Amino acid sequence: MLRSVLQWLNRVQSFLYCNENGFWGTFLESQRMCVCHTGATLCQRPIPCLIGGNNSCAMCSLANISQCGSCNKGYKLYRGRCEPQNVDSERSEQFISFETDLDFQDLELKYLLQKMDSRLHIHTTFISNEVRLETFFDPRWRKRMSLTLKSNKNRMDYLHMMVGLSMKICQMRNSSVDPMFFVYVNPFSGSHSEGWSMPFGEHGYPRWEKVRLMNSQCFNWTLLLGNRWKTFFETVHIYLRSRAKVSTVLRNDSGPVDLSDPNKRQIYIKISDIQVFGYSVRFNADLLRSAVQQVNQSYTQGSQFYSSSSIMLLLLDIRDRINRLAPPVAPGKPHLDLFSCMLKHRLKLNNSEMIRVNHALDMYNTEILKQSDHLTTKLC
Question: CB–CB of 188/155 below 8 Å?
Answer without folding.
Answer: no
